[in-house]
Amino acid sequence: MALPVLIIGKSGEGKTYSLKNFQPGEVGIISVEKNRLPFRSELKPVRIPNYEKQMTEANTYAQVNAAKYAWIERTIEKAAAPSIVIDDSQYLMANELFDRSGERGYDKFTDIAKNFRNLIHFVNELEDENKIVYFLHHTESDGDNREKCKTIGKMLDEKLCVEGCFNIVLFCQNHEFYTQGNGMSTAKSPEGMFEQKIPNDLKAVDTAIREYYGMTGDG
Question: Which helix (H) or strand (E) holds 133?
Fold first, then answer.
């Protein structure tokens, strides 16, 4: 089975910058919102196709967003790179909410939560034991003033707990990764995999994960 990994942090703290030490062929980058990386590199992010341009009277925004998730799943499954990054994954939820802002009722919130949960499950169930998929995701404060995965509405928080779907959650702050919860975040990682605080180098993280679990880097 493939391995999903969650990287959380506020904007500008170094989540995307952590990709800097990857070389082309080592990682594929699916960018939900941005076209360029915040550093010079031969790495080339790919954007999700603009399915809104294909809208017809027969299509709804629910169908458009379902097509986006289907494209992401196909891209992950077919990618030659052993590691995949979904950059700014919280915008999958935020953009769908804006797309469907004209819809009344709570069905859209159920759909948004289900679509994101199903993407995580897709990675967990993918029959490629050497593939790692990183979700780079913004945070928000919870009731205990901890930084947690940013969501839309209460369904993902109260009924699912997004962090619970991941074995590894790293909290990025001031261009460093915190690997365990210490009261300020929902970070966690397996025993002995990392030190408490490490540089925000996702290539080094990727190497450590593969060594810990006996995964290859060949995809």
Answer: strand 132-137
Residue count of the chain, please give it.
219
Question: In this predicted model, what pLDDT tens digit does every residue of 71-98 receive, in sequence order?
Answer: 999 999 999 999 999 999 999 999 999 9
Judging by beta carbons within 10 Å of its beta carbon (0-12, 13-18, 19+), is residue 62 exposed, middle or buried? middle
Low-confidence residues of the chain, pLDDT below 70?
53-58, 218-219
| Overall domain count for the chain | 1
Rounded to whole angstroms, the Cα distance separating 181 from 27 reads 27
Residue 92 host element (H or E):
helix 90-99
Cα distance between residue 7 and residue 85, in whole Å: 10
pLDDT of residue 57: 53
Q: Is residue 76 part of a domain?
A: yes
Q: Which single residue is written with the structure tokens 């995999």?
A: 193
74 in a structural domain: yes
**Is 104 inside a domain boundary?**
yes
Is 218 inside any structural domain? no
Query: Count of CB atoms within 10 A of residue 186's CB?
Result: 21
User: Residue 17 carries which DSSP code?
Assistant: G
CATH number at residue 206: 3.40.50
How far apart (Å, rounded) are the C-alpha atoms in residues 43 and 28? Answer: 8
DSSP 42: S
- Phi and psi torsions of 60, nearest 5°: -115, 165
Q: Note down the domain range covering 169.
A: 3-213
pLDDT of residue 5: 98
